[in-house]
Specification:
The protein has 10 helices and 19 strands. By secondary structure, it is α+β, with helices and mostly antiparallel strands. The strands form 4 sheets. It has an 8-stranded antiparallel β-sheet, with helices on both faces. A 4-stranded parallel β-sheet has the order 3-2-1-4, sandwiched between helices. A hairpin with a 2-residue loop joins β9 and β10 (213-224). The longest helix has 17 residues, at 243-259. The chain binds adenosine-5'-diphosphate and magnesium ion (MG).
C-alpha cells in the first residue's frame, strides 16, 4: 500500500464502489464510515470501517475523525447526498480538502438552498416553506406559486416525496406524502416546500471544483416521467446547447456552486431551461451525479471522474480534460406496476457499445411501480461516437426488454392476468 488512507462516508452503491476501486487500484487503503442501522458485510476492498450514527452528526464527526486519525486517513469523500454536510465537517476537523462547513447545509436543506441561491442572484423557483396546514393554505393561495406546483420534503433526494400537484386537493395529499418522506437517517425536519413549477426541459450539470476553481465536465439531458411523480428514466451526455444558453447555464451553476460553499469536490446541479433559454436551478448536490453519470463521463469523454475526485480529496492536481469526443446514455428499467417480478426478457448484455449493465431486482421479488428513483430495477449504458446513433441504439435495446409483473393485490384470474402488466417497461 502507498500513500494516505482514504475514508468513504457510506461505501454502499455503485458510485461509492467505483471510488473505492479507484482508491484501492492506486494503492490506497480504503476505509468506510457506516450507519449503525445498516451495517453491511464489509466490501472486499475495505481495510476497515467505523460504525456510527449518521443521525447524530456531532457524535459522528467525533467518532469518524478519531478513527481517521488512527488510520492515517488523508482523504474523505462521499457519494451519498445525505452525508455531504457531514463530509465537510469531517474534512474541516481533519484539515483535509473539503467544502465550507458553514455553508454545506445549503446543499442539503432545500429551504436553505432556495434562500442562499436566490441571495446569490441565481434564478430558482419561487419557494415557500410550509410547517403546517395554515402555511399550506397560504402558499397555495400565493399567486407566485400557482398551479401546477411542486411539493417536496426539505431534506429528500432521489425524487422521494416529490409531487407535481395540479389542484388544492392534490396538493393536500402531496403535502402528506412529502412529510412522510423523511431523510434516509431520520434526522431531518418534517417541513416541506411548495414551489412554483418551472416549465422547460431538464438538464443537469456535472462539475468538479478544486481549490474553488470549477470545471464543468458536461451538461446532461435528463429524461423524466411526466405526471405527478417525476422519476428519472435516463441520462445522456454531453449535450451541446446553443453557446449563449450554455454560457448562461454555466454562469448560474458556477454561482450556485460558490453560494453553497463547494470548494473541493463534485457537484451535480439540476436545471430547467425554458423555451426562451432561461435557466432555473432546481437543486444542487455536493456530490457526483448518481444514476451512472460517472460511467457516462468515462465512456463519452474519457474522464475518469472517480480518479479525479480522489485526487481532489487528496489535494493533488486532478485530470479533468476530455480525452474522447463520444456520446453515452443510460436507460433505466422500471416495473409496469407494483407486484411480484415474474420474468425479465431481453435485458442487454455487456458488449461492444454497451459497456455497462446493472440489474438489481430478483425474479420472484416484490417491485414497485416507478415512484422514486430507488424503484428502478436496472440500467444499461450505450456509448459510441455519434449521439443520434447512440440514442437510436438505446431506444432499440429498450424496446426489446419485457418485464412481467404479477400485480398486487393478486388478480383473481391467476396467471392469465399477468399479460396485462407485461410490456416494455422503459419509459420513453
Ligand atoms: N420547481 C420545479 N419545477 C418543475 N419540476 C420540478 C420542480 N421541482 C422538482 N421538479 C421535478 O421533480 C424532480 C425531483 O425534484 P428534486 O427537487 O430534484 O428532488 P430530489 O432531490 O428528490 O431529486 C425533478 O427532477 C423535476 O423533474
Ligand atoms: Mg433532483
Amino acid at each position: 500500500m502507498t500513500g494516505a488512507a482514504v475514508l468513504l462516508l457510506d461505501a454502499a452503491g455503485p458510485e461509492s464502489a467505483a471510488l473505492a476501486r479507484a482508491a484501492a487500484g492506486r494503492g490506497h487503503q480504503v476505509h468506510a464510515a457506516t450507519a449503525t442501522a445498516d451495517v453491511p458485510a464489509p466490501a472486499p476492498e475495505l481495510a476497515g470501517q467505523v460504525v456510527t450514527d449518521f443521525a447524530r452528526p456531532d457524535r459522528a464527526v467525533e467518532e469518524i475523525t478519531a478513527y481517521a486519525r488512527r488510520r492515517g486517513v488523508g482523504a474523505v469523500l462521499t457519494a451519498n447526498e445525505y452525508l455531504t454536510e457531514l463530509a465537510a465537517l469531517v474534512c474541516t476537523e481533519l484539515g483535509l480538502p473539503g467544502n465550507d462547513p458553514h455553508l454545506a447545509y445549503a446543499a442539503r436543506d432545500k429551504a436553505a438552498m432556495a434562500r442562499v441561491l436566490a441571495a446569490a442572484g441565481v434564478r430558482v423557483p419561487y419557494t415557500r416553506l410550509v410547517h403546517d396546514g395554515t402555511d399550506l393554505t397560504d402558499a397555495l393561495a400565493d399567486v407566485r406559486v400557482g398551479f401546477p406546483c411542486v411539493i417536496k420534503p426539505v431534506g429528500g433526494a432521489g425524487s422521494a416525496g416529490v409531487t407535481v400537484a395540479t389542484s388544492p386537493a392534490e396538493a393536500a395529499t402531496a403535502a402528506a406524502t412529502a412529510r412522510m418522506a423523511r431523510g434516509r437517517y431520520g434526522d431531518d425536519a418534517a417541513d416541506i416546500l411548495v414551489q412554483a413549477y418551472a416549465v422547460g426541459d431538464e438538464y443537469s450539470v456535472e462539475s468538479v471544483t478544486q481549490d474553488a476553481h470549477t470545471t464543468h465536465l458536461a451538461i446532461t439531458r435528463k429524461a423524466v416521467t411526466g405526471g405527478a411523480r417525476r422519476v428519472e428514466t435516463g441520462h445522456s451526455l454531453p449535450v451541446h446547447l446553443p453557446p449563449v444558453t450554455e454560457a448562461a447555464v454555466h454562469r448560474e451553476v458556477a454561482a450556485a456552486i460558490r453560494s453553497v460553499g463547494i470548494r473541493h469536490g463534485a457537484s451535480h446541479t439540476e436545471v430547467v431551461i425554458d423555451p426562451d433559454g432561461r435557466c432555473t436551478v432546481i437543486e444542487i448536490a455536493a456530490r457526483l451525479g448518481a444514476g451512472h453519470i460517472g460511467v457516462l463521463l468515462q465512456h463519452a469523454l474519457g474522464i475518469d471522474v472517480f480518479a479525479a475526485l480522489l485526487d481532489v480529496a487528496l489535494g493533488r492536481p486532478a485530470a479533468l480534460s476530455p480525452t474522447a469526443r463520444g456520446h453515452a446514455t443510460v436507460r433505466f428499467v422500471t416495473a409496469p406496476c407494483a407486484g411480484r417480478l415474474t420474468s425479465l426478457i431481453g435485458f442487454p448484455k455487456p458488449g461492444p457499445g454497451v459497456p455497462f449493465v446493472r440489474w438489481r431486482a430478483a425474479i420472484g421479488g416484490v417491485v414497485n411501480a416507478a415512484g422514486v428513483n430507488a424503484d428502478r430495477l436496472g440500467a444499461f449504458v450505450v456509448t459510441g461516437p455519434d449521439a443520434a446513433e447512440v440514442e437510436q441504439r438505446a431506444d432499440l435495446l429498450a424496446r426489446q426488454i419485457r418485464v412481467r409483473v404479477a400485480p398486487t393485490p393478486p388478480a383473481p384470474g391467476g396467471p392469465d392476468q399477468l399479460s396485462s402488466a407485461s410490456r416494455s417497461a422503459i419509459a420513453p
